[in-house]
Amino acid sequence: MAAVPAASDSDSAAIAELQQRFSAHRQAFLRHPFPEARERRAHLYALAQALLDNRERMRAALRADFAVHPDATADLVDVGGPLSRALSAARHVGRWMRPERRRVERLSFGTSRAYVAWQPKGVTGVVVPWNFPFDLSLGPLADMLAAGNRVIIKMSEYTPACGQLAQEIIARTFAADHVAVVNGGVELGRAFTALRWDHLLFTGNPEVGRQVALAAAGNLVPVTLELGGKNPAIFAADAVTAEHVGLALGVKLVNGGQMCVSADHCLVPRAQLEEFVALARAHFERALRDYSRTGHCTGIISPRHFERQLQLVEEARRAGARIIQLDADGAVDATTRRLPVSLVIDPDPRLRLMQEEIFGPLLPVIPYDSLDAVIDTLKRVERPLALYLYTRDAALVERFRRETFSGGYGVNAIAAQAGLDELGFGGVGRSGSGRYHGHDGFREFSNPRGMFVKGRGGAFKTFLPPYGPGKHRQIDQLFALRRLQLRLMRWFYRG
Q1: Taking the CB of residue 181, how many other CB atoms lie within 10 A of it?
Q2: 5 pLDDT exceeds 50?
Q3: For residues 206 and 3, is the Cβ–Cβ distance under 8 A?
């Protein structure tokens, strides 16, 4: 994802507001540190109702910020995504909150009991990117409300209409010291990440993510980082079909390719490269010939991002790559920032197109000679947010699961793993850390407080000085039992 633009003079007032809100949230949390399930459920219902009530206003805000933005994308992702997660969390939050029993070894601890007791972390912050401004602000909010936290959200300066609307919606829905939205530029962003949060969620690019992690480390703030990456989609020899190619291209069209879990590039058997191209052309010929001229095509978020896409494709063209514009009747439109969808065939790996996350309607298609070589390469590159494999071979699916690395793994589908309420979402390595969505989000934004309740029996006193001959005999007996335990386990698990 792209770096943020220059700071504005209005940030000083926004920073003062942020500091006041943060202090108010902190005091409110100390007064009421553990909302019960009924209260959390009420907060989630309020969020769901706000999303339903403001559906049309959210559509309009997205159109204002993106120049062109399909209502269907708004409904399915930016409104429907948080709505589904809020309702799912409301349904399950009572169960999630229950302390989880842990096994206690009777020899040492007798009848004592142990639990993981889920405790709200406190005041949590969310730094929102521009590509799905409501889904990536109000979606995490559902997880954080389920965990019992207070939340402050910093919207992206690239989406001012969405930021203003989010601020209005939240102000009408929640108490000011419970959930708040702040808007501003670079300086506000720096001040935001420098606060002593109880947890901070950042979604963006790895370069800015590194700065956020360093700022948070200064206060020992735990962070969840969602950082994107160059997600590969690998087509096995049995998978270069009209259905699979159409599905992969269809996801690339969502939000104009401005989606961190979209396929960044495709790897195709060399012998089937031209078949892949022909299937892609045919897919657009049927219903998408003028795609980039229609209201189905989302505009690129800003003139700078739009110009970057043009530069990426022009650099590839100058380097000798074959460029195939799939929507044959499409066109570049600087006014609405819409671009045709183009394949870039076998580009030089040194190009910016192959070094940077594309985040637009360009799709490199790279031929390969063997899956062994593909897997070897995937082991050596930075670990992406997602990896996708198209195949009907169950053994190959399992091999990729075991031998490759990514935040998420999709088989015969792209981005589906990010849309499930009950499947943890996140990256690994350079593509991020931490998991949220559903139960995983509740856990991410809760403190898993280890709780021990002493019972009768056990060997408590053995641990305490003084250590006389009697205690040494007890310790020797304990080690004799451990030796027997090891022998039995080796026998029982010998397979």
Answers
A1: 25
A2: no
A3: no
User: Is the pTM higher than 0.85?
Assistant: yes
Q: Give me the pLDDT at residue 9, please.
A: 59
Tokens linked to 83: 């709505």
Q: Find all residues with CB under 8 Å of 74, minimum gap 6, and list them.
A: 58, 59, 62
Average pLDDT over residues 463-484: 91
Consecutive H or E run containing 315 = helix 303-318
Q: Which residues contact 460 (CB under 8 A, 6 or more apart)?
A: 109, 110, 454
| One-letter amino acid for residue 161 of the chain | A
Alpha-carbon distance of 129 to 136, in angstroms, equals: 7
260 is catalytic: yes
Q: Which of 122, 127, 118, 224 is nearest to 177 (CA)?
A: 122
Q: What is d(CA 68, CA 436) in angstroms, rounded to the nearest whole number?
A: 30
Mean pLDDT value across the chain: 95
Calpha distance 129→159 (Å, rounded): 9
The domains located in the chain, with CATH, are: 11-227+437-448 (3.40.605.10), 232-426 (3.40.309.10)
Strand segments (E) across 337-453 = 342-345, 362-368, 386-390, 408-411, 432-433, 446-453
Question: What pLDDT, on a 0 to 100 scale, did the predictor assign at position 21?
Answer: 97
In the set 162, 260, 266, 297, the catalytic residue is 260
Angle, CA 482 vertex, CA 480 and CA 488 arms, to 5°: 110
227-243 average pLDDT score: 96
**Residue whose structure tokens are 């790996």:** 349
pLDDT (average), residues 166-178:
98
Give yes or no: 226 in active site. yes
Considering 157, 162, 226, 266, which one is annotated as catalytic? 226
- Rounded to an integer, what distance in angstroms lies between the CA atom of residue 62 and that of residue 68? 8
Strands 265-269 and 362-368: parallel
| Residue among 287, 292, 342 at smallest CA distance from 316 | 342
Q: Residue 366 is encoded by which pair of tokens?
A: 């790279």
CA 50 to chain centre: 23
Amino acid at 143: D
- Cα torsion 33, 38, 44, 48 to 10°: value is -160
Kindly list the distances between the CA atom of residue 128 and the CA atoms of 63, 162, 225, in Å, as whole numbers in the listed order: 18, 11, 11
